[in-house]
Write a structure and sequence with these properties.
alpha/beta, 12 strands, binds 3-isopropylmalic acid, binds magnesium ion
Length: 358
């Protein structure tokens, strides 16, 4: 088959990790008889530098003309929060998620056996294993609510960010979570703050309604503060964790760290139509950009998710995941996952080691 993939290389380490991933995808193409056509899409700080805005006109259309989108990373101190919104890379990321309707963000956190030593949790806890899927709502909530900034007579400037959720938005993300659970260990933990927030009380009511529709899936409510604690106390208890946008942002960073490094975890953002967007959950790491130091694994595993979910190519996805496991088992380590005294490979060496195992 022939597939068209939009590449958003982005900022910082983005171009390097996307490069390695393209080489992995091409190796898969050779081996399994597919061809991939790549189209570069300019987005993020690099777009601000090139054309003055981080989200150029026509970006969504370009992406929609492809079968899937792969994104490296966007952002950096050069385009910081003091810059106008249209020049900030984060604005572009939120805009593309919204314009492509990518409301479901899947962030698997798996502790790979070869990296058990990189897990910062107690040995007994790590031995119980970690294999959870964070399902984060991605196009609603406080990220997209109305913002305001105004002068008050007596308290200086005041700002507000509105968190809003509709039943429809909650139901569609909830359904995703239950459907994903059916493909896994059949347990959904829904995370909210229903003891305080009205949006969470609605969230919980909708989730309970769905839980009745999926009697074969175990269901529990977890308050967000407790979830943050349980993730370090006993992450093995979780299968699918579903939550709203901002809680999911925070908890997914935590979930990534307990598996050893934020450099390892991929993600998929999808809506009801094509194309979905695949990206590592880490950022652009400007401090190590251009130095061949970044870990390309999260992006390479994001391509595996693309093959699995957008192209229904599960053997190809398995081949990538197995190649990553093998490269790690052979002892290849980028700086972020190297233990004391272990040899450190660069971005390109790690990419090569993974390709050699395909
Ligand atoms: C993420 C990132 C983004 C988010 C930022 C860069 C806007 O942290 O994908 O988790 O908060 O969604
Ligand atoms: Mg984040």
């Amino acid at each position: 088959m022939h597939y068209k993939i939009a590449l958003i290389r982005g900022d910082g380490i983005g171009p390097e990790i996307v490069n390695e991933t393209v080489k992995v995808m091409d190796k898969i193409g050779e081996k399994f008889g597919h061809t991939f056509e790549y189209g570069d899409v300019l987005l993020g700080g690099c777009a601000t530098d090139a054309v003055g805005v981080s989200y150029p006109d026509g970006t969504a259309e370009l992406c929609k003309s492809c079968d899937a989108v792969l994104l490296g990373a966007v952002g950096g101190p050069k385009w910081g929060s003091d810059k106008p919104a249209e020049q900030r890379p984060e604005t572009a990321l939120l805009a593309i998620r919204k314009e492509l309707g990518l409301y479901a963000n899947l962030r698997p956190a798996v502790l790979m056996p070869a990296l058990a030593d990189a897990c910062p949790l107690k040995k007994e806890t790590a031995e119980r294993g970690i294999d959870l899927l964070m399902v984060r709502e991605l196009t609603g909530g406080i990220y997209f609510g109305r913002r305001d900034r105004y002068e008050t007579p007596d308290r200086g400037v005041e700002c507000t960010d509105l968190m809003a959720y509709s039943e429809k938005e909650i139901e569609r993300i909830g359904r995703r979570a239950f459907e994903m659970a059916r493909l896994r260990r059949r347990k959904v933990s829904s995370v909210d703050k229903a003891n305080v927030l009205e949006t969470s009380r609605l969230w919980r009511a909708v989730m309970h309604r769905l839980a009745e529709e999926y009697p074969d899936v175990a269901y529990e409510d977890v308050l967000v503060d407790n979830c943050a604690m349980q993730l370090v106390r006993d992450p093995g208890q979780f299968d699918v964790v579903v939550t709203e946008n901002m809680f999911g942002d925070i908890l997914s960073d935590e979930a990534s760290m307990i598996t050893g490094s934020i450099g390892l975890l991929p993600s998929a953002s999808m809506g009801d139509g094509a194309p979905a967007l695949y990206e590592p959950i880490h950022g652009s790491a400007p401090d190590i950009a251009g130095q061949d130091k970044a870990n390309p694994i999260a992006t390479i595993l994001s391509a595996a998710m693309m093959f699995r979910y957008s192209f229904q190519l599960s053997a190809e996805a398995d081949a990538i995941e197995a190649a990553v496991d093998k490269a790690l088992a052979e002892g290849w380590r980028t700086a972020d996952i190297a233990g004391p005294g272990e040899a450190v490979a660069g971005t390109q060496k790690m990419g090569q080691a993974i390709r050699d195992n395909i």
